[in-house]
Amino acid sequence: MNRVWSLLFLLVPILGTLLIVWAIFGAWPLAGLWLPENVNEYGGVIDHLFNLILWITGVIFIGTGAILALTMWPAKGGSRRAAYVHGNHTLEIIWAVIPAGILVFLSIYQLNAWAENKMDRPVEVVDGEERLVPPSVRVVARQFDWDFFYPGPDGKFDTVDDFMVTGEVHVPKNQPVVFQIESSDVLHSFFVPSLRVKQDIVPGMKQFVWFEANKAGRYEIACTELCGWGHYKMGAVLEVQEEEDYAVWLQETTAKCLAISQSFEE
Ligand SMILES: [Cu+2]
Known about the structure:
Layout: H1 2-25, H2 44-72, H3 89-109, H4 111-119, E1 123-126, E2 129-132, E3 137-142, E4 145-150, E5 163-166, E6 168-172, E7 177-183, E8 188-192, E9 197-201, E10 207-211, E11 217-223, E12 235-241, H5 243-265
Parallel strand pairs: 3-7, 6-12
Antiparallel strand pairs: 1-2, 3-4, 4-5, 7-10, 8-9, 8-11, 11-12
Helix pairs in contact: 1-2
This protein binds copper (II) ion.
């Protein structure tokens, strides 16, 4: 009977690993469940960290599962009583120090990724002077939708020519893009899996995210902070366009929105 239990427990790491590998290769019925392709120039460092942590936790997951199964496997030649052990200081120190060491290593190792994605906003050179890339879109999260504000022809936010689109935001390909993100009610979180961009949004705070998309297409935006009953449907689309297509879209949408606001004034 012990053999059955031992094998049963051994199935946990085996099936767990199998499922993950299956999903990575995207075969039916697990296709599309793993991370989508990264289309952000700054996203590689996030993938690298993700894979590193997956390897570390994977080895521990398989190792502990195997040790458990091995311990349960009955001894040769009959029954064996388990020894009653009341604490073992050496063991306790080992399993406290190893995870602590791994965490300290990761926290130092990820400093560059953090700086690149959360602190060093991209810079651009204008009239021979370096400056931070200004936000091109103001993203406002609300229960349960995303509003995207564009600064309009004058390039400044909070002026009369600003316009807003809901549910879909357009950005140019191969250009550093900065979003200013805000919430108009509760906590939300701005997540674009294909860009490896994720940022919590705190009401009253102005935050920035940046990316450089290198592949045209339509990508999912999701809210990843449980923000109320409609959280599950709080999504939008990020459309990355070739520079010329983006310019056309921007011009057309600006004209359309200005025409609507003028018709209200009349
Ligand atoms: Cu939300």
